[in-house]
């Protein structure tokens, strides 16, 4: 497969993916690929943009609402997760919701999935 990189690209997509998948310390990953730790942190943070955005929205909900009980808080958070995953398109996902993107990925690579993606909030088992 031929990969076309833009003029200023110095980190190939295969190494970017390895950086994002790695759980090793940044210095070790940098040493392995002959890159700087700053490059490792840059590519790791790009992978987490949606998580940071989601956490920011949850923080807004927590600061702007008064909850009468723990159950009230739990139900509000569950509603917010369902809304975020199923109804709010994300630009990083080319205008798709996270659930729609998962469904498309499952069609392309069904062997990677043990269960059918659906917008049910709660713990994965």
End-to-end span in angstroms? 36 Å
Give the biggest beta sheet: none
- Give the number of helices: 6
- The SS-based structural class is mainly alpha
How many extended strands? 0
Number of domains: 2
Helix content: 55-70%
C-alpha geometry: extended
Order of helices and strands: HHHHHH
Q: Evaluate the radius of gyration.
A: 18 Å
Strand proportion, as a percent range, falls in under 5%
The unreliable regions are: none
Q: Provide mean pLDDT, rounded.
A: 82
Multimer state: single chain
Give a brief description.
This protein has helices spanning about 15-20, 25-35, 35-45, 50-65, 70-85, 100-110.
Account of the 3D structure:
- It is a single chain.
- The chain has 125 residues and is mostly helical.
- It has 2 domains: 35 residues; 63 residues, no CATH class.
- 58% of the residues lie in helices and 0% in strands.
- It has 6 helices and no strands.
- The longest helix has 18 residues.
- The radius of gyration is 18 Å and the shape is extended.
- The two termini are 36 Å apart.
- The model has no long low-confidence stretch (mean pLDDT 82).
What is the strand and helix layout of this fold?
Blueprint: H1 13-21, H2 26-33, H3 37-47, H4 49-64, H5 70-87, H6 98-108
Helix pairs in contact: 1-3, 2-3, 4-5
């Amino acid at each position: 497969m031929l990969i076309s990189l833009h003029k200023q690209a110095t980190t190939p997509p295969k190494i970017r993916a390895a950086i994002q998948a790695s759980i090793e310390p940044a210095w070790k990953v940098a040493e392995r690929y002959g890159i700087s730790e700053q490059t490792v942190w840059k590519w790791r943070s790009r992978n987490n943009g949606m998580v940071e955005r989601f956490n920011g929205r949850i923080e807004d909900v927590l600061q702007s609402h008064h909850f009468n009980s723990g159950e009230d808080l739990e139900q509000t958070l569950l509603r917010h997760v369902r809304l975020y995953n199923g109804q709010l398109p994300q630009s990083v996902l080319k205008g798709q919701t996270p659930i729609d993107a998962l469904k498309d990925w499952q069609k392309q690579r069904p062997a990677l999935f043990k269960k059918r993606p659906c917008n049910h909030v709660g713990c994965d088992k």
